[in-house]
Structures
1.
Amino acid sequence: MRLSGADIQSATGGRWHGSVPDSMGAITTDSRIFQTGSTFLALRGANFDGHVYAASVADRAVALIGDKAGVALWSDLNSNLRLDLSNSILEVGDTLQAFGQIANAWRQRLVDTTVIAISGSYGKTSLRSMLETGFSALNLKVAATHANLNNLIGVPQTLLAVPLDTDIAIIECGISEVGEMERLAAIVQPDITVLTGMTEAHGEGLGGLAGIVNEKALLLEGANWCALGAGVAELFAKHHIAVHAPCLSMQQNEPEHVDWQLDDCALTLTYQGQQADMSLSLPAAHWAQNLAFAASIMLRHLNAASACTSLQSVVAALSTWQPQAGRLQTKTGHNGCLILDDCYNANPVSMQAAIDTLKAMRGNKVAILGDMAELGDVSDMAHAGLDISQLDAVYLIGEQMQTLAAKHTKVFWFASTDAALAALTDADFDSRHTILIKASRSMALEKIVQLLSQPEVIHAV
């Protein structure tokens, strides 16, 4: 990013104290990773105040951005501690809102970049990584969300890091409260909006499924066209939400999307008389569905410009995709067992998809499943409704999983991850076993992944 102090003042409606910088580059909100020559923006939360950390970076900062109370604090620090906080200081009404406004000002400069916004209750991170892989393999310059930078702090960070010469910017947008999506949509102003699917994930703060559907729909405003995953169009119709932008829907019998068929790990994709094959590392139907969705989006975008991109070239580009850490990654465990590490997050749809993938594996199938968080009033029903039939052994962890354990007599239930760790220390798994480990991030099941992945200690005799 490269904006002038005047540009940022115009975007935020703020007021400069001291000189107005001619040029401002990176904006950082975390003093621990601050780099010389950046601007420090002080965020304020329920349990922290970033303004108190400005003194530690002020001598290396081009400028400081704070709210009225924070700027007053900096003035007091100057007087009482004789610190040199004589930087250019921009005073704004709300620093989080200002962060988004600055990011939007930079987004307006990205005139040659196609900005794709992705949201949904499940699948958005996998789809984002598939699109990043596919477009990059076709020699386009791609910038994309990394890690979990998909909220009101992460989205501005991601946008501000997009270079001017980027062809495709893929911005993941996640919400947990009413009003957040409207703000994210105003920041990103996507050319293309992608909604993967919707369920009761984060329903606790959004008013259930109806609230989720209404909030997600706000990301469609102003987009040139949108892509809707399986079931999304039906949910919009059910909740009387009109989609005004041209739409690519993954509904059955829609001619514009790519169809798929999975036979074990062999995936066949078809599109308007064309066919292409690729191999997956697991018999994961939800991966196949997402790859078909990614191929559909890529073909729609690329053919709008050149009308000559083939399904074969798109599938070849997508064939290098690999799942990200903690998202159904395969690892070798004790005695040669196979671990499916999917402990990064969970909701009812992704949990069942992972279980179904396990069912499609050969050998002894073991599931270690923890609570799914933030489901609100539907939590008991969502946990109890999981289909864990056809599995050889099931370990359930957490208070919410107790509702599922009550339905099955041959499962093991533990109140906490630590209790499960103790019980699994002497587990007798070997090369015949495939072990799925999945839960919401708050359950910290990576501890179990680490336990079962540890190499055995060989004692000298």
2.
Amino acid sequence: MNPVKSILDHEKVAVSKEEYARIQENLSYYESRNGKANYTNTDYQLREREVKHLPIARTACKKIAGLIYNEQAEFKIDNEVASKFVNEILKQDRFNKNFERYLESALALGGMAMRPYVDGERIRVAFIQAPVFFPSQANTQDVSSAVIAIKSVKSGRSTIKYYTLLEVHEWLADGQYKISNELYMSERKDQLGGRVPLSDVYEGLEEVVTFNNLSRPLFTYLRTPGMNNKDINSSLGLSIFDNAKTTIDFINTTYDEFAWEVKMGQRRVAVPAQTVRTFFDKNGDKVIIKQHFDPDQNVFVQLDSGADDKSVGIHDLTTDIRSDSYIAAINEGLRLFEMQIGVSAGMFTFDGKSMKTATEVVSENSDTYQLRNSVVSLVEHSISELIVSICELAKATGLYNGEIPSLDEITISLDDGIFTDKNAQLDYWSKALAAGLVPKRYAIEKALGMTEEQAKALANEIDRESEETMNRNRSQFDTEVYGE
């Protein structure tokens, strides 16, 4: 076949070049690829230096991902057989640990996909990051078909071959779900190349696999919340910092200038040439200048003031570093960045003077809390879809014989302890109980985070102790009043 220049040129891919370029640009911000800066020194020579930067994009994604998901997440299914099967699969595959890591990438690049696959006698979960996930049939609400790229490299004696396996997931007219595997090879890293046999890399892999009775695609696409204002017709999500790139550039430019000023602001003292002694080596063909000062320091600079100059002296050339101005500018940039990505003020900045109380941090009106809730709802729905796909794939391959759960039967419990003010929560439910708005069992369940059975048992124990205390007090009262 004729070589294909790019995956975007594949007939099944429905992603614009502008959207793919945006994802690549987001990746460069996430990786903090800032390159080098050119400048002209005092001798009018062109020099090059590394650009100093703050990894603000990566830091923001990592921090928010940690607030959303952690290893305390739990998955519950009404069907006990399905619940046990799915939890065992996710536990063996270290899903909780891996998901938090890849969620960081999804926030940085606008989304990711998850796909179950068969590995021997096990079902495992593959995480597909945004640069290798290409929707083929989609609307702005959902992605129903897609092309997934898997890259590999083979090195020979004189050449390097770049292989790309394309998994084409699509629905057929009769309701069947079809996966087509296509392998491409190129000697250039930036090209997809020509199609070659699957056996060149993947021995035993079938070109076409079809499934019957699937209720949904064998992948689930998790996109970030909010509208894609870069392309309102795109089904792909935006990075959380997609609309804050100019602010990231400002912060990094200011930080780079600050770091350079600190470097250039080291102490310099000009000393007259008369204070420097010159002597020749034994061959007489080389001049060595030796200072009368400590040879291990670089503070002093020779200044030729002229042989007839009577004003011999030492002058401090050190200039003050504008640290306060630079730090204030960086903090102002960080405050603007917080506003643009939708988190509460003070998440990345700290003035050293004030600290928010726990109640203020976890307030349900805070921007950070609202952002977390938006992402959490999407994460819970995406994982529920993944669980359905796991069960359907396992049943289709004979690894599971139970019922397929529906989305309504799946409960995803994400630990939100960091956003829970225990004292405020206890006070709220205590007042609700005192006002007679909720039963005691329900108040205990919500205030202490217990299950319904645990809360009921604790409520019964409290009632029993209260009754025993009341009987003991009544007995003591009767004794004191009426005697034995």
3.
Amino acid sequence: MTTAPADPALLTITELGAAFRARRLSPVEATRSCLDRIARLDPELHAFITVTADAALDQARAATAELERGRDRGPLHGVPIGLKDLIDTAGVPTTAGSALFADRVPAEDAEVVRRLRDAGCVILGKLNLHEVAYGASGVIGHFPATRNPRSPAHITGGSSSGSAAAVGAGMCYAALGSDTSGSIRVPAALCGIVGFMPSYGLVSLRGVTPLSWSYDHVGPMTRSVRDAALVLQVIAGYDAADLTSIAFPAADYVGGLDAPGPMPRIGVARSHFFDDLHPDVAAAVERALGVLAGLGATLRDVAIAVDDDRTVFRAESWAYHRAHVEASPERYQPETVRRLRTGEAVAAAEYIARLHELQHMRRRAPALFADVDLIVAPTTAIPAPSFAELAERPEDLRPRELVLMRTTRMFDVLGTPGISVPCGTTAAGLPIGLQIIGPPGGDAAVLRLAAAYEAATR
């Protein structure tokens, strides 16, 4: 075998796969490189809750042997990844970031984990998160808060905090996160990586601890758009055993990145989504719009009616956690209990009425794309706050989280696919994200534009 790259953990999945198949690198070497970085970096970053090093090396050895025998399971074969710790993994604690579930060990894999294993992935372990995914900061939980790999004095955003930090720090090549109000896209933006939220129902939620069944999405977090497409290709698809699953037409998300065709018509969602932006965020997004126009996209302003009602979200979160809160409130963080209890007073009739309205909004969502193909907005209005400023004014934590989610949450409501791609940094070096949104089922188009922008700005 020829000499491996100096730091294989920093390759993209595409580069890693090429190295595997050229015998320049093995899955065992890639896995050891990731484990070495975890040992070196994670004591400060706290991205992982559980590292399954022995099992990962066993899986890597099996992948190496299969590839050497000519059994190739596809682009993710032998690729080390991490899982947000609310995704069931057989025989491994799945804690949801809470003391309540600290000793919970599922007997079966979540459907997305089963699909990743079938593709030959190496599972490195379980990643930290904002407790039970109820927050956009990542600072509340039973385990030490994850720190931003670009600036450990700053938060990662949440709730998929560990997933963003692990990918950003090169501790894994990809991670799965979940997104209910922005929990993939927000930390992706704040940590300078790619975060993709698939169309609602495209990726199975079976075996994933819910926050709100009507809004939850599971998706990939990676260092490139192509890597996100590679992971999505494996985890997407109908699951008859999941009541939230939708049978979308099959798509080639990876091949679609290079598909010929005109640049899309882009709607710029200025009202609400561009309000009160940090000056550096505003400047970076305007530059990104200029890049898109330079690629041949046509831009026009569009208006999106924003629904801020959280009745369905609050009611469903309370419904799942009610018995646990009533029996053992001390096993949650106090702020998590406070948030969960906001759903306690939602009456059944109110919930049903609002759920009915949600279904109508989703039926109308394709109309947003009558005159445009995709919509672009900032991922977050502000860069990552520092731990110091949040500690100085703890009463500002929830308001700051709501600011972070202000530009993402509506697309969870509508069930549309969305991606955050890096589009610059602040003067202080903090990452900024650009959000691209497509119609329900338009995941391939979102990825294609994101890849074109990435290629133009890398």
4.
Amino acid sequence: MNQERVDKVKAVNEQLSSILKEVNSIKEENAYMKKALDRARYEADEERSKNKELQVQLEGLKMAKVISGEEPIDKHARTKINEMVKEIDRCIALMNN
């Protein structure tokens, strides 16, 4: 009877040891995944930033082509030009006050 208890305790200890190894392995994997996620988020932020910069450059190039006469003025370009003129008018008004 005593040997049975010893055997059961050994079996439980082995299972506990196995579970602890698995938990540690999962913790390591989780830490790796968190780092990978942080890296991916950083890269996504960088790409969004680059995309915004490129959109601004594209708008500038489109406007430059319209102003230089290379392309006809479309509705979007006309709207942008009108916005710019309004902003210039506001600046002039502020300077006059």
